[in-house]
Amino acid sequence: QVQLVESGGGSVQAGGSLRLSCVASGRTLSNYAMAWFRQAPGKEREFVAGISRNSDSTGYVDSVKGRFTISRDNAKNTVDLQMSSLKPEDTAVYYCAADLEGFYRASYYARKAVDYDYWGQGTQVTVSS
Q: What is the pLDDT of residue 28?
């Protein structure tokens, strides 16, 4: 069991930056592959960025490549998402998620929401033009 809490969301103008943070409790975050997803009203939850538990593998949805960076600090039980050059289409609720499969596959992360075992409550990101 792990609890995840996101923070760092807010409202920014297009071209601005935000840094989202996810803090875990209950279990050490080092046991899990981690990801950020986002969901806009009326749309499916979308994979944004993922990172394996040993940080050997990272990946991003095409629309954020070159603009977003995922990182983790297992000693602090945190996962961050640095977002720059934000666009209005980035507006969504952003969720942190943990996948226990990462315990067995140290260099792996999933891209499907159904594969993740634990979720944070979400943090709103709004980007205005």
A: 84
